[in-house]
Description:
Residues 367-413 form the HAMP domain. One of its GO terms (cellular component) is plasma membrane. It is found in: Cell membrane. 63% of the residues lie in helices and 12% in strands. The chain has 20 helices and 11 strands. The protein has helices spanning 2-34, 48-69, 74-77, 80-91, 117-124, 140-149, 166-205, 211-222, 225-242, 255-281, 285-290, 293-304, 308-334, 339-378, 393-447, 454-486, 498-508, 510-515, 535-552, 608-618; strands spanning 95-101, 107-109, 125-130, 151-158, 493-497, 519-524, 530-534, 558-566, 569-577, 622-628, 631-639. Strands 6-8-9-11-10 form a 5-stranded mixed β-sheet. A 4-stranded antiparallel β-sheet has the order 2-1-4-3, with helices on both faces. The protein has a two-stranded antiparallel ribbon with strand order 5-7.
Amino acid sequence: MDIKLKNKKSILICFVVSVYLIAIASIACIDVLNNKYYLKKEAYINSEFFKKEVINYFENVQILIRSDKSDLNKKKQEDLESVKLKKVINNNKAFSYYIKNQNTGKVYTNISGLSNLNKYIEDKALYNLNLSKIEDNRFNFIRTEVERNNFTGNIIVLKKGETSTQLYRDYDYYNSIKSKLIKEIIIGIMSFGIGIFLILYLLKYKRDELKFIEKTRERYNKVPVELRIILLFIFLKIMSDYQRRIYLFDMPIKIERFIKLSFVALYIFYLLICGLNFINNKNNGTKIFKNSIVYKMKEDIRESFKIKSTIRKVTLVYITTISIGFVFIIGMAMFKYNKLIFLLIMTYIGIYAYIVPRYIFKKTAMVNKIVKGTEEMVAGNLDYTIDENDKGLLGKLAHNINNMKKGFKKSVENQVKSERLKSELITNVSHDLKTPLTSIINYVDLLKSEDLSKEDMNVYIQILDKKSKRLKVLIEDLFEASKISSGSIELNIEKVDISEILRQALGEFHEKIESSSLNFKVNMEKDGIYANLDGKKTWRVFENLIGNILKYSMKNSRVYIDLETEGNKAMVTMKNISAYEMDFNTEEIFERFKRGDKARKSDGSGLGLAIAKSIVELQGGNMDIVIDGDLFKVIIEFSLLDK
């Protein structure tokens, strides 16, 4: 039991982990989609931040060039602002520039010792903006200035060195996000694959241990379609807000992120339930529609109008109450009123206009169903069942009426069965008594003949003796059955050994058992199995059952007789293979004059099993019959004496 419980817990944990893995994959997917720009090639180079850095640098260089071109004296050219600007440009180690004025032929650069510009660009450049061929529309401003001043040359963004600048920090930031997103993609794919595999495996091979899924789906099926749609939209809205605020993979890890992850896992579980529900009900749209509020409202209205007198009264009450509300509003409109009170009244009327009609139609429909059900029962249709879907007193009333109908139906069935059995009893008694009696009358007539030989006379007398004894047995059995059923039989209850009584019964039939082709297998658990019983009557039960076995068993078959104890019960089991087809009910075989051979060719009276069962039950025991194909099995239980 403990191992089974542990396995169940392990499977449950495995399922929860699989849902969380899919939730992690979902969050990874959302994060990747929200930041997919960072996955592009040269994402930072193509960003607005990079554009601003390049344009700002070009503007500073351009201002520096203009200051160099001015006609002011040398002292003014080296004025404080110019010096500051040159310092800013030279301190920005992320850029180099090489600009040539085509009009004057003068070259402006911050590259010292330059011998080969192309070689320098190839070795040093992270990005090169060729001023003669500006194709990137982001740099339209630079293109315009270059064309206006007739500049050529290059603005070069250098590869990262030891110096840290804002541009390099931004560049590293973009690359770190790209690296993080690639890891998220790998984690997402692995989490999704493992999660889906686990869920599919558990649903296919361990579904019995995940019964809560089926229970959840059954509860979900009870939710009206309209509420399901609203619930789905609420989840989608929350998830759409979440996708902008979920940062599961950022450091440090906080508890609030696990809470958000749990909510996403809950949403995944909800989608799983929706998916399973869709698969199971994809061809059952009618059933889903019947569970909707609209359909139920329509049915309630339809049922309500079946008895017009009821709906008229209910509608009158509804219209009267709603009219009072409108009169009150009109009265308020004619005088000064409070907006809050007006809003509350309108809200009340809105709720009233929805809830009250729904309640009225539902209750009216229930009343009509009860009336319809009682009419069907009065008409004799006892198979009609009143719908009990109301949780109030009307539902309880419908339930009680259905129970009354079931009891009445059972009573009618028992009465019909009783009449049928009574008819069969009369037929069987007449047949069983008439057969030997007719034989006696016929042979008596033959004996009256004067030309009979002594030998024939002896034969006829033997037959008469046999038939009269047969008739005597039938009458005695009939009287005994009558006495038992009326309760007038006397029992001599005393402490007896059941094993000893069973041995005596078997001993009584020893010669017949030996002469038969049957193979008896007797198994007694132990000697001295004591109970308070009537020894003679109990012997009569065993004698009847063993006699039936000898009469009705298939030739050359085995018979099993077992006596064993189980708790405070002694159990006697007798099993044999029937020679007749047993196409009868196990309950009917206990009826009086009911016999296994319908042709009634055997010597039995048909009262034996009925008498045996009555004797057993009068002694506080129980006797049952089990039929399995041709196997006939009798089980008798007696209460043992307390030790």
